[in-house]
C-alpha cells in the first residue's frame, strides 16, 4: 500500500506496521536494539531505513548485518540548510510514520522539526529537563547528583525540550566514573526506547497536538521507571 506522506499529519492511523526511519551518528546500539525488537515482532513496526550523517560509523555495518537499508547523508562540510534539505528528501522517500533520533548528534532547525511534528522522538542521556546538551554523565558526577537516567521525548524546536514521555532512573554510585555511569544509563535506554515505540505502534501513545496522551490520559509529567 502506498501511503501519502501529505495525508499523514501525525502518526499512522492504520494497524499496518509502523514505518520507522532511524537517524544515527555513531555506534548505533539503540538503533540495533529497536531493529531487533521489530524483527522479532515484539514491536508492530519495521525499520524502513537507517540514516547516518557520518560515513564510516559503527552503526552502519551493524544495520547492514541485520538486513536493514542504510543511507549516509553527510553533514560535514555542508551548510545546515542544504544538509536538512537532503535529509528531508531522503527521509520522505521512505515515507516514515515515525522518525527516531538514536544518538543523532546534530542540532536540527525549527523548520525541519516542524516538518516531522508529532512523529519524531529522541532519547537523551539525562533526567530532562536537567542536563540538556552534551557531556551529561560527567556533569552529573561533577554536580554530586545521587540519581541520573535517560529520557525519551517528542522532538520540538527547543533543544532537548519537547514533551517528556518515559524516563529511566538509576542511582549514581560513589565509585562511578563517567564510563561506568554511561554504561548503566545506556543499558536502560535499550529498555525504555523500544517501549515507547511499542506504545506508539500499538496506538497507546499519541502526540495529540503537543499534549501527549498515554492510554487516554494526558502526560503532564513523564512516566518514570527505576533501575538498579
Ligand atoms: C545514547 O546514549 C543517547 O542517549 C545519546 O547518544 C548515545 C548514542 O548511543 N544521545 C544524545 O546524547 C543526544 N543528545 P548509541 O549510538 O549506541 O545508540
Structure description:
This protein is α/β, with parallel strands linked by helices and 228 residues long. It has two domains: 17-116, Formyl transferase, N-terminal domain (Rossmann fold, 3-Layer(aba) Sandwich), CATH 3.40.50; 125-152 and 165-228, Formyl transferase, N-terminal domain (Rossmann fold, 3-Layer(aba) Sandwich). Helices cover 31% and strands 23% of the residues. Strands 3-2-1-4-5-6-7-11 form an eight-stranded mixed sheet, covered by helices on one side. It has a three-stranded antiparallel sheet with strand order 8-9-10. Helix 1 (29-39) packs parallel to helix 6 (178-201). The longest helix has 24 residues, at 178-201. Residues 1-10 have low confidence and may be disordered. It binds glycinamide ribonucleotide. Glycinamide ribonucleotide is lined by residues 24, 26-30, 59, 102-103, 123-125, 150, 186, 189.
Count up the helices.
Answer: 6
Radius of gyration: 17 Å
Strand content: 15-25%
Largest sheet: 8 strands, mixed
Mean pLDDT: 94
Q: Which structural class should the secondary elements be placed in?
A: alpha/beta
Write out the distinct hetero groups bound to the structure: glycinamide ribonucleotide
| Coarse morphology | globular
Strand tally is: 11
Assigned CATH superfamily of the largest domain = Formyl transferase, N-terminal domain
Q: Which H/E pattern describes the elements? A: EHEHEHEHEHEEHEEEE
Q: What's the CATH C level of the largest domain?
A: Alpha Beta
CATH topology of the largest domain: Rossmann fold
CATH architectural label of the largest domain: 3-Layer(aba) Sandwich
Low-confidence stretches: 1-10
Q: What's the number of structural domains?
A: 2
Alpha-carbon distance between the termini? 44 Å
Amino acid at each position: 500500500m502506498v501511503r501519502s506522506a501529505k495525508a499523514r499529519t501525525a502518526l499512522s492511523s492504520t494497524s499496518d506496521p509502523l514505518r520507522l526511519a532511524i537517524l544515527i551518528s555513531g555506534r548505533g546500539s539503540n538503533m540495533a536494539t529497536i531493529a531487533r525488537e521489530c524483527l522479532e515482532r515484539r514491536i508492530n513496526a519495521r525499520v524502513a531505513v537507517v540514516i547516518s550523517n557520518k560515513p564510516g560509523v559503527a552503526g552502519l555495518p551493524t544495520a547492514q548485518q541485520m538486513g536493514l537499508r542504510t543511507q549516509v547523508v553527510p553533514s560535514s562540510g555542508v551548510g545546515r540548510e542544504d544538509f536538512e534539505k537532503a535529509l528531508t528528501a531522503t527521509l520522505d522517500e521512505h515515507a516514515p510514520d515515525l522518525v527516531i533520533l538514536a544518538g543523532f548528534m546534530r542540532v536540527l532547525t525549527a523548520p525541519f522539526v516542524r516538518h516531522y511534528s508529532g512523529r519524531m522522538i529522541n532519547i537523551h542521556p539525562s533526567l530532562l529537563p536537567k542536563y540538556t546538551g552534551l557531556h551529561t554523565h560527567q556533569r552529573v558526577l561533577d554536580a554530586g547528583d545521587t540519581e541520573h537516567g535517560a529520557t525519551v521525548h517528542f522532538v520540538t524546536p527547543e533543544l532537548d525540550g519537547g514533551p517528556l514521555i518515559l524516563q529511566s532512573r538509576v542511582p549514581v554510585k560513589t565509585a562511578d566514573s563517567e564510563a561506568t555511569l554511561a554504561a548503566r544509563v545506556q543499558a536502560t535506554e535499550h529498555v525504555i526506547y523500544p517501549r515507547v515505540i511499542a506504545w506508539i505502534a500499538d496506538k497507546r501513545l499519541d502526540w495529540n497536538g503537543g499534549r501527549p496522551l498515554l492510554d487516554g490520559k494526558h502526560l503532564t509529567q513523564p512516566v518514570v521507571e527505576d533501575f538498579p
